[in-house]
Amino acid sequence: MAEVCSPLRIPLIAGHKNPAAVTEDVCRPMLRPPSTLWWAGFTVAFALLLLGVAAVSYQIATGVGTWGLNTTVGWAFDITNFVFWVGIGHAGTLISAILFLFRQKWRTSVNRSAEAMTLFAVMCAGIFPVIHTGRPWLAYWLFPYPNTRGPLWINFRSPLAWDCFAISTYFLISATFWYVGLIPDLATIRDRVAPGLRQRLFATFSLGWNGSYRVWRHYEVLYLLLAGLATPLVVSVHTIVSWDFATAVIPGWHATIFPPYFVAGAIFSGIAMVLTLMIVARKLMGLEDYITLRHVDVMCKLLLLTSSIVALAYGTEFFTAFYGGNAYEQFVFRNRALGPFAWAYWTMVSCNVLVPQLLWFRGVRRRLELVFFLSLLINVGMWFERFVIIVTSLHRDFLPSSWAMYRPTIVEVSTLLGSFGLFFTCFLIFCRILPVIAMGEVKAVLRHGHENGGHA
Amino acid sequence: MSQRVLIGIFDSEDAILQVTESARRRGLKIVDVFAPYAVHGLDRAMGLERSKLPWVCAALGLFGASFKVWFEYWTTASDWPINVGGKPWNSLPAFVPITFEVMVLFAGISTVLAFFGMNRLWPGRRAALLDPRVSNDRFALVLEEDNAAFDVDEIGHFLREHQAIRVEEREQEIAA
User: Fold this and answer.
1) Burial letters for B30-54: b for 16+ Cβ neighbours within 10 Å, e otherwise?
2) pLDDT confidence of residue A7
3) Model pTM score
4) Mean of the per-residue pLDDT values for chain B?
5) Residue among A176, A206, A213 whose CB faces B112 most closely
6) Domain segments of chain B: what residues?
7) Residue A13 in 3-state DSSP?
């Protein structure tokens, strides 16, 4: 077949690959020993993880007094980190489920690693509320189970109970979706590696997959159903996270705008994290033909879109405070922009609204080092968004005599660093033992943009 | 029980689509088609009916949701009612978020389990591979030699005409 490029469809995968080349390219990094760079990254990540383990052990053994919280600021670092990590996870589901429903074929190059990122981010997120309960060994009390205390049931009217169900469901469904997507690829590797432990493991987890189309037919429907379920699920999860705040009567939290504001912010921060990881992974693992400049370009556009939604939400909050005429609400927003935490507020606005405006320029979107740097800034900005929402709404409450400041302790900062350690340790191990590109899906879009290709 | 089958191995998506379509038109019995990835339109070419998985998903999703509404009502209003901020015993609107989550959980997990069950996929099952490269870049069409009129040479020729790179005859066990 002559390789004629269609003027309408740009090929998704560069370098005129055939299916065998895809298998080869994706399996090669898995089957050779890790590079020095990988070991360097893993050492740093694992050291941070150990720091986190030490910090968590210390605070559990000592008590919640190791945190910088006080009677006025009762929620700060833990909840900021929780919302931050859950938000990161949302981009994975956006790419794997929502873009699948929208038939965005470019997603096939990044969906596997984005979903892995979702899982690890939700794991990191889950740690914080559990620590924050103060008695993490009783965390199972969050679930309704027949107990000897009556049985006394949990309060199903509480957004914190909703949150517990939302996060658990989100983790289970994301993990299932990810595993289902992996099965055909696990079979590909099973048929490729030499007999031994690795081959036996892949054989076990590929469940005897043999490529039969009678199974593929159900598989495709299953994939569609899971995508259809995950799409409203991901929206519900961050909506429920926002209700943790919005159902309280605290000025600065009690706003109807919260659910869409949080969901957009979550996807914004998540895509920034996907970009951070992808730009590094494509370089480290030699996947330049799969994760092309075009992929980066499209994700930058998604960043621009979600950044605009977030900017609109920032503006709307201020307008509502001004127009609503509530003195307490007006005070909170004035305090946010001009009070003692103004530096945090303006860091957030600069990173989330001003800096992403650079992405309007194609020249910027095509410069990977610049995009990488911007994505890091957006991650910082989105962390500060949660910090600003939580801390500035609390620290100067209705009663000026109880006003207080919040400053994280070394234990809290170490816990945050530890969560990054957990995230990157998991991600680096994932890059070593599983295919980072969904081979079965990429093979189906190889001819996109070439003659006769793209659609049957 | 065993059956005699004729297998054609192909190396392109177009070839497998065309040969499957013409084999079905010719009235040949297609045992199965093996592919390394989902090929758009191959289910139609094989003449397969639509998957029934959406029904499992809908039924179990509804079951999960109704169970959860009942459970929330029973625990909050009947088994041990607790007055929380003077809210009504039966706070139906506040039950909606968890009901939704449990619906998604039941629907998702049960659909996956149903998929594993109906296709007999389980950990440690030995994969019956037609060709070691069928999970990499090869496609295979398996035709049943169902009666005496099945002319192996003629059908072999037909497969080769459709760009089969290999044709072979095999005796294979069929699961009851």
Assistant:
1) bbbbbbbbbbeebbebbebeebebe
2) 57
3) 0.92
4) 87
5) A176
6) 2-50+128-173, 53-118
7) coil
